Amino acid sequence: MPQPQFGVFSLLSVPDVRDEVALVQGELEINCYAEEAGFDAVWLAEHSGSRYGLIASPQVMAAAIAARTRRIRIGTGVSVLPLHQPLRLANDFAMIDVLSGGRLDYGVGRGYSADEYASYGLDVTENRARFDEAFEVILKAWTQESFSHDGTYYHIPSVQSVPSPIQRPHPPLYVAAGSPETVTWAAQRLVGILSSSGSAENIAAKWQAYREAARAAGHADAAIEEALARSWVVKHIYVAADDETAVREAGPAFMWFFKLLANRRMFDGPIEPRPLEWWQERGACYFGSAETVTARLAEWQAASGVQNTLCWVNTGGMPAARVLHSMRLFGERVIPALRPAAS
Q: For residue 254, which of 231, 277, 233, 232 has the smallest C-alpha distance?
């Protein structure tokens, strides 16, 4: 059984008007500190047009992280393919792989915001078709010395694919798997999956659906388990000296985030709002002492069968110093407890 991996998830979601320069610089500090704190990866979400997420170009943030770190892997959770010209994405993220010395994990998705699509002059109902074609272009760019493409949405004459990624045949691929259709799509291609955190039962069922679809596509069990072993589930995480302090410091920002129905649905939540305690019991968030968070994560891993936790450490634009302290406690006391062979 591979050792569990722990990553930091970065959305940079901010509930009110604050100093945007300080917020962005603070988030960069958080993302780079993940290496020092003992995390294995940092994953960057893409959103634009609102304060829901300020990382409109994850490749810019990724380049900054690559320049300031040496070990940690840098992922996108996700790069929204239909919103951009795919050759540009292929070139940008190949450069990230080169600049980082081969540390890119490329997570992709269709996106879901009609407002974001409209801001780019696109129709959100085309997102699946555009996604499929853009994904095809990126794979061509990363695996062929030169290529051309003549599709429905993208027309590219013969071009050289430079620079090439360091990782061959291409960086590890992931997809945001929120629907059964996307789970099947990923399984057919042995693409790793990124999932928000519903109940352990629902996540276990999603992983099993992946296995069944991958077997139906003719993949060997060993390859299927390797793909699932590198997949991730997101959880809101905050560690403090004791449970009461953790809930007091992180609870309000978390509850702001979950006032939005779409965010509740993301974590298998109901239409009507629920208190923080409900979300903790459900497993969407673990706020508490290192001992409490360790116990809850260990229980989650046993029940779901999923080992890799993508820690959403900064919900709602909390002060960077507070988030860094939580990350330090997680790295010093939670990771060694859940990964004893590495302690």
A: 277
